[in-house]
Amino acid sequence: MEHFSHITDAIQMASEHQNGYFNTLLNTVNDHVVRLSVMTEPFYWHFHPNSDEVFLTLEGILLIELESETIELSPGQLFTVQRNIPHRTAPKNGRSVNLTFEHQHMETVRM
Asked: What positions does the domain Cupin type-2 occupy (predicted)?
């Protein structure tokens, strides 16, 4: 497992990715990881059978579509999607930048 002992500038990294979908590992915390995602298009419907997934929006508005409702996260807002809950994410107005916190061995099942 890679260990990080330096400052990571997530905002700078995000500014280098303006189009499409970008997702990268930022850091590890015990048996979890912190990932940066930049979205300009929706992600596919999926669920995670072995891990909750926490979203923290840094820029833009992130839509988290669940089967029964859609959550809107503005910068600084955080939401947890519990394991086994089908969901998909999308930027509301063209682009969103988000951190996700998840188990390092999280499984993703595409629907």
From this structure: 43-89
